[in-house]
């Protein structure tokens, strides 16, 4: 499995730039904003992790300033890159990882460990033992889910979850969370200020609350962004909700269009003005009576044209990326660091195919977003039925 | 324009070592490293592109933190980081022969830091913006031809419901007759000595000349309970053009309101035109929570119709249930729906038309309804 990255690279988390220029404080734009999908080098430190083979399974997670690459292949190997340099973490037997700006969490068959990335300590900041699963019927829980609860991004690390939720997968944003139950139901909780909980308003929720608008439609995958959520139904449809100030919902964004108009006459504003619409109903645009949406407080079905089945989706702070069943990658939302992969720094509220992969005849199988960048896995092209 | 940079750098620390960058643990070390990079670039010969890029990273990240959660929960450290981002960006913009447009952008950037950030380095952004403003020469010959001149629906004030008016009461009598019993009153001739009525009479032209290129928050829409209500950031010139002079057609149907804002902290020249009413000294000084404060509303230009209801009659005023709007009534005061809000007609009130020079005392927690009758400037004093 080969991985490509694009977007924010100020810390070399996608590819390391010339060491010399870094010291003198010289950061050219092209070093910091990677606009073209760039292949990640597998061999970080050949002596410790000298793998040349194309691995079947590997996993990437990204925080704002770092990226972690887990190679699962017999003796697993965790390679960290970005702020603080590249390093290989002692991690044989590691099956899963989660990366935040402050902690790296590793899952093993018998324990979970969280390492504080800001301190150079020899032991994890926190750890807990887990029982290997007694029933091997279902797939193992993936982080941040652990038996009985989940691991949060800041202390207290372990948080319990009610067993009646039957948590199957969980995604954590900075201030909100989305949970998928074994029945395909979706629950959200946390901050609701930008409609990111999908309950139709702006109020926050302390406890998991079912997203009623999706009731009756089983979902199979849930993800969070900075202020939005997305999920894929069993029928491979994509639903999305939350804040749309950069077009991250793929719906018409007024602040985005205004920002583009200002750019053509003068430099872009630092801070986009946001019009808040608590009712979740669209605002009238000024000229063409086009309907704009700044907050989508209920899930909306997003058709990525041409209509196609969605295989997986991931969200950054203010952008979204989706992989179709036909091996294409679509991205939309905030693009000022190149995180959309369209070879420019333009944000867009319309999902667009990342042509690079088509041009290179690469078949996209997975996508993982960091806050301001995107990592894409390509694999063997599946046999296409015509 | 190198002269401009020498003025700007004179208010900055002379070298990297004396430039403070201290943050609590809340700000991760990766973020601090970018701030340190900006500081390095400030004192080295980095390119303008690189300086701008680093500053923008700081701004983009701290902007995200400022937009996480409710405003009052945002950690002050992130607001400081945002201010540093603005500082580094202004330094990058105005270093090498900035164009007039770049200077305006610099002013806007300072304003963003003043509006959204927290004071850093002895409020250096305030100092920088004054320097930049001096560089900007604006012609003040704009005409005020298209001021709204029609006077819609001036209500007739019934004597038995009028807010009483008195001229310059003593502190003692104001305290015993109005402050302690929490009774509204209009103090006449109390603000007559303000420069805003004398040496610098406030007007649209005056506001433009003093603050035209400054960025301020504006509320758009007649009522903040309307669906179309929104907030935006405009320069004072844009606000005047779009909402006062109705020069921009799309805005001619909507109302813009420069409100709820510490304008006098941001634009100290205007502060010099006003005076704090003496009666404010009768308070004991705790200002943090606006909801437990008394208020003086001073009318400077134009007139406003105002109606006041006592907190004792809250049960007849049908406040909204939601936490965001629980201090707002659901009733349309001058056109109440008597079926939905039957008790409203029985709520006693006092009313007035506030004219230039009038100072209205609004006792703590009194419900207030305000409609501008024409172009209007007022100054509000919160005290306790």
UniProtKB/TrEMBL annotation, chain A:
PROSITE patterns assigned: RCC1_2 (PS00626), RCC1_3 (PS50012)
InterPro entries per the UniProt record, alphabetical: RCC1/BLIP-II, RCC1_domain-containing, Reg_chr_condens
Low complexity bias (residue ranges): 265-275
Pfam families membership: RCC1 (PF00415)
RCC repeat windows: 184-235, 236-326, 327-380
Region (Disordered): 253-281
Protein name stated in the entry: RCC1 domain containing 1
Protein's gene: rccd1
Automatic annotation (TrEMBL), chain B:
Catalysed reactions, semicolon-separated: N(6),N(6)-dimethyl-L-lysyl(36)-[histone H3] + 2 2-oxoglutarate + 2 O2 = L-lysyl(36)-[histone H3] + 2 formaldehyde + 2 succinate + 2 CO2
Alphabetical list of InterPro entries matching this protein: ARM_KDM8_N, Cupin_8, JmjC_dom
Highest taxon of source: Eukaryota
Broadest EC class assigned to this enzyme: oxidoreductase
Entry keyword annotation includes Transport: no
One term of GO molecular function: metal ion binding
Known cofactor(s): Fe(2+)
PANTHER family per the UniProt record, alphabetical: BIFUNCTIONAL PEPTIDASE AND ARGINYL-HYDROXYLASE JMJD5, HYPOXIA-INDUCIBLE FACTOR 1 ALPHA INHIBITOR-RELATED
Name of the protein in question: Lysine-specific demethylase 8
């Amino acid at each position: 499995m080969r991985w490509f990255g694009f977007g924010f690279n100020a810390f070399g988390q996608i590819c390391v730039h010339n060491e010399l220029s870094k010291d003198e404080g010289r950061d050219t734009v092209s070093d910091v904003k990677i606009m073209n999908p760039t292949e990640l080098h597998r061999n970080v430190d050949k002596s410790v992790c000298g793998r040349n083979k194309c691995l079947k399974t590997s996993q990437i997670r990204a925080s704002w300033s770092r990226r972690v690459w887990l190679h699962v292949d017999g003796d697993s190997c965790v390679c960290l890159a970005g702020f603080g340099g590249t390093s290989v973490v002692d991690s044989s037997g590691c099956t899963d990882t989660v990366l935040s700006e402050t902690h790296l969490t590793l899952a093993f068959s018998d324990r979970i460990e969280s390492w504080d990335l800001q301190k150079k300590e020899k032991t994890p900041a926190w750890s807990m033992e887990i029982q290997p699963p007694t029933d091997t019927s279902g797939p193992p829980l993936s982080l941040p889910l652990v038996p009985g609860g989940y691991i949060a991004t800041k202390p207290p690390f372990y948080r319990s979850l009610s067993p009646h939720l039957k948590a199957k997968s969980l995604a954590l944003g900075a201030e909100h969370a989305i949970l998928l139950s074994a029945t395909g139901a979706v629950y959200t909780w946390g901050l609701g200020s930008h409609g990111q909980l999908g309950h139709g308003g702006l109020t926050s929720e302390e406890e998991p609350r079912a997203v009623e608008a999706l009731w009756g439609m089983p979902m199979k995958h849930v993800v969070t962004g900075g202020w939005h959520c997305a999920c894929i139904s069993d029928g491979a449809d994509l639903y999305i909700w939350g804040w749309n100030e950069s077009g991250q919902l793929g719906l018409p964004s007024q602040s985005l269009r205004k920002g583009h108009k200002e750019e053509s006459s003068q430099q872009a504003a630092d801070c986009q003005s946001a019009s808040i619409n608590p009712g979740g109903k669209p605002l009238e645009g000024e000229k063409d009576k086009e309907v704009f949406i700044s907050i989508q407080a209920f899930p909306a079905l997003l058709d990525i044209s041409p209509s196609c089945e969605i295989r997986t989706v991931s969200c950054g702070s203010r952008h979204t990326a989706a992989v179709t069943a036909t091996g294409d990658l679509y991205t939309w939302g905030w693009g000022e660091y190149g995180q959309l992969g369209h070879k420019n720094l333009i944000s867009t509220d319309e999902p667009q195919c990342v042509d690079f992969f088509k041009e290179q005849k690469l078949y996209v199988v997975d996508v993982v977003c960091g806050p301001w960048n995107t990592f894409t896995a390509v694999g063997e092209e599946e046999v296409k039925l015509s | 324009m190198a002269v401009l940079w020498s003025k700007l750098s004179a208010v900055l620390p002379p070298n990297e070592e004396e430039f403070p960058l201290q943050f609590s643990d809340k700000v991760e070390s990766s973020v601090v490293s970018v701030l340190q990079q900006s500081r390095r670039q400030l004192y080295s010969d980095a390119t303008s592109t690189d300086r701008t890029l680093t500053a923008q990273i700081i701004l983009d990240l701290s902007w995200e933190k400022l937009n996480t959660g409710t405003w009052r929960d945002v950690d002050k450290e992130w607001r400081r980081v945002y201010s540093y981002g603005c500082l580094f960006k202004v330094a990058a913009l105005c270093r090498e022969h900035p164009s007039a447009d770049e200077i305006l952008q610099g002013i806007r950037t300072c304003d963003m830091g003043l509006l959204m950030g927290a004071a850093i380095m002895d409020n250096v952004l305030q100092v920088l913006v004054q320097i930049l403003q001096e560089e900007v020469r604006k012609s003040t010959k704009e005409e005020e031809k298209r001021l709204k001149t029609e006077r819609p629906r001036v209500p007739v004030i019934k004597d038995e419901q009028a807010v009483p008016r008195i001229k310059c009461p003593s502190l003692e009598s104001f305290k015993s007759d109005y402050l302690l019993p929490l009774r509204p009153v209009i103090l006449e001739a109390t603000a007559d000595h303000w420069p805003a009525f004398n040496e610098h009479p406030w007007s649209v032209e005056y506001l433009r000349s003093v603050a035209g290129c400054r960025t301020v928050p504006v509320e758009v829409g007649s009522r903040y309970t309307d669906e179309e209500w929104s907030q935006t950031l405009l320069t004072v010139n844009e606000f005047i053009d779009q909402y006062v002079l109705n020069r921009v057609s799309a805005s001619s149907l909507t109302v813009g309101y420069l409100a709820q804002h510490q304008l006098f902290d941001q634009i100290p020249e205007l502060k010099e035109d006003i005076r704090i009413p003496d009666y404010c000294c009768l308070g004991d000084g705790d200002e943090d929570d606006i909801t437990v404060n008394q208020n003086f509303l001073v009318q400077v230009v134009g007139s406003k119709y105002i109606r006041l209801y006592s907190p004792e009659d809250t049960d007849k005023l049908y406040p909204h249930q939601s936490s965001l709007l629980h201090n707002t009534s659901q009733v349309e005061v001058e056109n109440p729906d008597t079926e939905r809000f039957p008790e409203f007609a029985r709520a006693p009130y006092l009313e007035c038309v506030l004219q230039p020079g009038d100072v209205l005392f609004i006792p703590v927690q009194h419900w207030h309804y305000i409609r501008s009758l024409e172009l209007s400037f007022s100054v509000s004093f919160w005290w306790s």
